[in-house]
Write a structure and sequence with these properties.
single chain, 254 residues, mainly alpha
């Protein structure tokens, strides 16, 4: 636990080293991104099918997807980048991807502050606060942490032997982002039933919908809980198995 806490602190410090605004960027970045996306995409896609205040809708989707993207992208190279530490100390390998997920949780906390700021500004436009927002800590956050940690286990295991995965995953993240309704609603897309079912397979769609529900004051259904925790448990189980089977050969390929 001490090692894990130390690595999380190190990850946060390294992320904002030599930055004038430092951790404040964690709040400013989602705000600036929200302004750009709200301005551009509200005119392109329109706001049909979106009952939430549009800036809140965009920002809530953006901070959730950014949490997953940061955790998995940083975990991808964590084993290779810590080769010296792995060979000189007896540190559990799993600490590295898990620490990246926890670091992203800290950043998500600051991004959540940005969401609250926007909601306060948008109160004249009908935005209100609800007790359900406390459900962000539990049960929502643990479910998406399980999912991102599982994906992180897979990525860092594959990257040790297949370095091209870094470039492939970067492209895949771009596709994944546009396949996730961050700035649009599925209702505005003229999709046939098969295409819509394919879109709904996306786990991030369900994590976004869950988060937006609790921001709007709606308690998610038991089906939403089951999907989020089912996806999280499945990803974590598969990721852990792959990680366990691969870790004995990490040193050989690094």
């Amino acid at each position: 636990m001490v090692i894990l806490e130390s690595m999380v602190r190190k990850n946060i410090k390294n992320q904002y080293r030599r930055s004038f605004l430092g951790v404040l960027w964690t709040v400013l970045n989602p705000l600036l991104t929200m302004l750009v996306m709200a301005f551009v995409f509200s005119n392109i896609f329109g706001r049909q099918g979106i009952s939430m205040d549009y800036p809140v809708y965009v920002l809530s989707g953006n901070i959730v997807f950014s949490f997953m993207r940061a955790a998995t992208s940083n975990s991808l190279t964590c084993i290779v980048n810590n080769y010296d530490l792995l060979t000189k100390t007896r540190v559990p390998y799993a600490v590295f991807p898990i620490s990246q997920t926890l670091s992203s949780v800290v950043n998500f906390g600051f991004s959540f502050i940005a969401l609250i700021v926007v909601m306060l500004i948008r109160i004249p436009n009908g935005v209100t606060f609800h007790w359900t927002m406390f459900m962000t800590l539990a049960p929502w956050l643990p479910s998406i942490m399980m999912f991102t940690t599982g994906i992180s286990f897979i990525l860092c295991s594959v990257y040790v032997r297949f370095r091209d995965i870094k470039h492939i995953y970067s492209v895949f993240l771009t596709l994944w982002m546009y396949m996730t309704p961050i700035f649009y609603s599925l209702d505005v897309l003229k999709l046939d039933p098969v295409a819509r079912q394919v879109m709904e397979i996306n786990p991030m769609l369900h994590y976004l919908n869950y988060f937006r529900d609790i921001v709007c004051g709606t308690v998610p259904t038991w089906q939403a809980h089951a999907i989020c925790y089912g996806a999280g448990a499945a990803a974590l189980l598969v990721g852990w198995v792959i990680f366990r089977l691969s870790r004995k050969k990490f040193i050989l390929y690094i």
